[in-house]
């Protein structure tokens, strides 16, 4: 480095304090343990350019985080006592000789090793193209003079990111047969590629001004064609149609503002600490590797709260990753929130494009622009927020546009990243409950609602937030596997058509995304306790039983994990888990001489179903197996597996379970092993599976586990029993039959005292029928369903899992005449029951 740097080294103690007073640095990754720096190897930091300010920022971050402090290399090698810093050379400079010295030492001394850590320093993070004198002077750039660098630090010092790359495998990189000069050139080339990719991963692509973007949309050939068609179809001038297209583009397009991002960063940092106890983020290292791989990244998160919109962007920004543009419903485009979200990267879409071809053309062109430029994007595959906590069936319109753009060769290879977002407690859950119950209709968002809602929200704590980035789906590789001739198909695709092969491909991909979201779920204490409490018949559990069951379920989640990405509780002590969950769940303690009983108010029990539904899929297979022992003491393992595999498709489609049907038996077999290891099941002398002794804590835990899937199995039993009742007729009308299933579930809810509106959700019965069609037990022709004779055996097996009272109730209800004129009365009665 230059003489100036060595001179400043003498005054580092004096320079550090004024620098700390001015700049505000963020380290990326936030958890520097991701670097896995070895304590027995010296460290060499490598900067992309020789810069006094970059070096000082690095020194400040190392001091704050306890990393080895960077010192100038000079003529000395890095050692355990002295970490050094150098910059990539420009021509035949001193830095080249410093790098040459380190490489030569490694070639001649086989015992010498060093951890070379590439470090990128970003002063401000504005990706907008430099179009004004202000931006030219103050926006960060790859290479700047000293005066401009000073101005950049002056303008952007409050928003400084220091990113540490993974240490280079120094010994693995060296080629003992190569000359030192050759190795230096190779090392410089590798590091320059790293820094270039890191800059792209952090800032994203360079963005044009919004006016330029809108003009480019109107110049798109498909939009031009859409304008001409609209003019002919509506008998208006081309100028009028073009003006409408411009209005659409203005309605849709984001308007990135670094000032708005900085403002929202401060607001959200305050907000998270105000209402949440922390944000738990998982699998960032894998995501970082994906973004660094020069890929277009499409984030597809679950959607449970309005907080989701900025939560993922907040995390990505704090972690030094490029902000995505976010697809937001046009209902959020109200003053002043709409403009602020737009400047934070939101682009707006209407709920339905149907009937407006010009709007569709403009929106598709906008998605094409994002894909072509490599701009990360985010949208919600469910379309809207889940009111029940379950993942909703995916909407495929937006995904179809992204797929056709990415596979059409309009940008870099794309990676789809499923994202799980979970909460200890969702702030809108009361509103969701009222909407499900029918006492509060859905309505558009407004500033008044926001102000009224925020005053309540800020007075409460909602526990922790859990965000987990799932296994990325390489879109091209996925297409190669599931649509081998996709390249030829995409070349001949008419953008105004949606051929069947494309619909099927996108639908399968959407299912895969939903499975990926659930595969990376986080199991928290309140989710576990909700599973136990809501599984008890009267929503009341003895404290000692709760503690023991929590401990066993936590052990099961660790011993038999749902997937490698699912996160089980770090704590398996039932007392600690209960202490964490109790205030969030608002449990009521009923004192008793034999020990406290834990319960909740009726309304709160319904609200907790949302928390339960977030994580119930993690125990789907163990719970299915446990149901075979709810009414039988002994069962043959092979028979249990046979019957469970028969029922598996129902649970898989309802909960987006990750195993394909051909892997279900193996997965269920592993679930049985987990149940045996944790004491939920035992084996007798003959090798048969048996349940623990009645009255034991293990038996109570097994019954609690079985009830997790009980409602799903009951709904399934109702469906197949009603179908088998129609076997003589051979066919049923689909729409009418779905209504009969819903009415029957409403009736069961009243008879059993269930305070759960989701129990008779019509979408669940619709999903059951689709599953039965898929496995061949039903054949659909138009609106008619033809029933296969094999359904009778399935109905008998499903009934075996239910208790005698439920079996009798279902058998009685299926024998009654089902009259269409009872629909309204049944619905009203069910709402009255659920209002409880």
From TrEMBL:
Residues 817-836 are annotated as: Disordered. It is an enzyme of class 2 (transferase). It catalyses: sn-glycerol 3-phosphate + an acyl-CoA = a 1-acyl-sn-glycero-3-phosphate + CoA. Pathway: Phospholipid metabolism; CDP-diacylglycerol biosynthesis; CDP-diacylglycerol from sn-glycerol 3-phosphate: step 1/3; Lipid metabolism. Pfam families: Acyltransferase, GPAT_C. Keywords: Acyltransferase, Cell membrane, Lipid biosynthesis, Lipid metabolism, Membrane, Phospholipid biosynthesis, Phospholipid metabolism, Transferase. A motif (HXXXXD motif) lies at residues 302-307. Its EC number is 2.3.1.15. It is found in: Cell membrane. Residues 297-424 form the Phospholipid/glycerol acyltransferase domain. This is Glycerol-3-phosphate acyltransferase. It comes from Salinisphaera dokdonensis CL-ES53.
């Amino acid at each position: 480095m230059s003489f100036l740097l060595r001179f400043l080294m003498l005054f580092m103690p004096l320079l550090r304090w004024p620098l700390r007073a001015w700049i505000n640095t963020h380290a990326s990754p936030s958890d520097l343990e991701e670097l896995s720096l070895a304590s027995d190897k010296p460290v060499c930091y490598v900067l992309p350019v020789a810069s006094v300010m970059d070096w000082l920022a690095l020194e400040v971050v190392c001091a704050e985080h306890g990393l080895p402090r960077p010192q100038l290399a000079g003529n000395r090698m890095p050692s355990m006592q002295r970490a050094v810093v150098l910059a990539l050379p420009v021509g035949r400079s001193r830095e080249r000789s410093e790098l040459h010295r380190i490489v030569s030492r490694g070639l001649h001394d086989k015992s010498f090793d060093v951890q070379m850590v590439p470090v990128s320093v970003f002063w401000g993070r504005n990706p907008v193209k430099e179009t004004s004198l202000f931006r030219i002077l103050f926006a960060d750039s790859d290479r700047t003079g000293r005066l401009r660098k000073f101005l950049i630090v002056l303008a952007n010092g409050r928003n400084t990111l220091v990113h540490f790359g993974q240490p280079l495998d120094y010994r693995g990189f060296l080629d003992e047969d190569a000359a030192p000069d050759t190795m230096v050139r190779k090392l410089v080339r590798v590091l320059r590629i790293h820094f270039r990719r890191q800059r792209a991963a952090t800032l994203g692509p360079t963005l044009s001004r919004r006016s330029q973007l809108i003009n480019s949309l109107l110049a798109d050939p498909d939009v031009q064609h859409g304008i001409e068609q609209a003019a002919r179809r509506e008998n208006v001038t081309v100028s009028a149609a073009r003006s409408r297209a411009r209005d659409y583009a203005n309605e849709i397009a984001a308007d990135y503002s670094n000032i708005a991002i900085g403002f929202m960063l401060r607001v959200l940092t305050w907000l998270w600490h105000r209402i949440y106890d922390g944000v738990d983020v998982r699998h960032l290292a894998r995501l970082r590797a994906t973004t660094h791989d020069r890929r277009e990244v499409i984030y597809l998160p679950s959607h449970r709260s309005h907080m989701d919109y900025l939560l993922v962007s907040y995390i990505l920004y704090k972690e030094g990753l490029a902000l995505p543009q976010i697809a937001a419903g046009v209902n959020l485009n109200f003053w002043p929130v709409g403009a602020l979200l737009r400047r934070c990267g939101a682009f707006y879409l209407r709920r339905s494009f149907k009937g407006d071809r010009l709007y569709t053309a403009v929106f598709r062109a906008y998605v094409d622009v994002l894909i072509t430029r490599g701009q990360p994007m985010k949208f919600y595959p469910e379309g809207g927020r889940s009111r029940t906590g379950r993942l909703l069936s995916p909407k495929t319109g937006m995904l179809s546009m992204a797929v056709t753009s990415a596979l059409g060769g309009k940008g870099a290879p794309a990676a789809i990243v499923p994202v799980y977002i979970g909460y200890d407690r969702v702030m809108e859950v009361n509103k969701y409950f009222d909407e499900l119950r029918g006492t509060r209709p859905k309505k558009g968002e407004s500033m008044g609602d926001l102000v009224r809602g925020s005053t309540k929200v800020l007075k409460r704590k909602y526990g922790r937030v859990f965000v987990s980035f799932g296994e990325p789906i390489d879109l091209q590789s996925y297409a190669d596997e599931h649509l081998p001739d996709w390249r030829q198909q995409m070349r001949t695709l008419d953008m105004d058509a949606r051929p069947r092969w494309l619909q099927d491909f996108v639908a399968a991909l959407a299912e895969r995304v939903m499975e990926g979201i659930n595969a990376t779920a986080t199991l928290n204490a309140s989710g576990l306790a909700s599973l136990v409490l809501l599984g008890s018949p009267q929503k009341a559990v003895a404290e000692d039983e709760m503690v023991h069951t929590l401990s066993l379920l936590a052990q099961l989640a660790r011993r038999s994990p749902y997937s490698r990405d699912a996160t089980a509780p770090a704590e398996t002590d039932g007392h600690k888990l209960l202490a964490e969950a109790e205030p969030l769940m608002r449990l009521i303690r009923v004192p008793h001489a034999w020990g406290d009983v834990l319960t909740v108010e009726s309304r709160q029990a319904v609200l907790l179903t949302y928390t339960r539904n977030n994580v119930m899929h993690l125990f789907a297979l163990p719970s299915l197996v446990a149901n075979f022992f709810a009414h039988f003491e002994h069962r043959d393992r092979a028979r249990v597996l046979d019957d469970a595999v028969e029922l598996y498709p129902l649970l898989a489609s309802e909960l987006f379970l990750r195993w394909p049907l051909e892997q279900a038996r193996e997965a269920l077999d592993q679930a049985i092993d987990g149940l045996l290891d944790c004491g939920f099941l035992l084996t007798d002398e003959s090798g048969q599976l048996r349940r623990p002794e009645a009255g034991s804590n293990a038996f109570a835990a097994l019954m609690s586990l079985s009830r997790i899937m009980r409602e799903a199995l009951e709904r399934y039993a109702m469906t197949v029993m009603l179908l088998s009742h129609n076997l003589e007729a051979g066919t049923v009308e689909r729409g009418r039959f779905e209504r009969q299933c819903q009415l029957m579930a409403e009736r069961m809810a009243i008879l059993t005292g269930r305070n759960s509106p989701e129990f008779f959700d019509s979408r669940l019965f619709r999903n059951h029928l689709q599953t039965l069609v898929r496995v061949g037990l039903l054949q659909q022709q138009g609106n008619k369903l033809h029933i296969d004779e094999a359904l009778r055996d399935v109905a008998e097996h499903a009934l075996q899992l239910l208790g005698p009272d439920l079996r009798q109730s279902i058998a009685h209800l299926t024998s009654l005449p089902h009259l269409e004129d009872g629909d309204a009365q049944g619905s009203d009665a069910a709402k009255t029951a659920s209002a409880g």
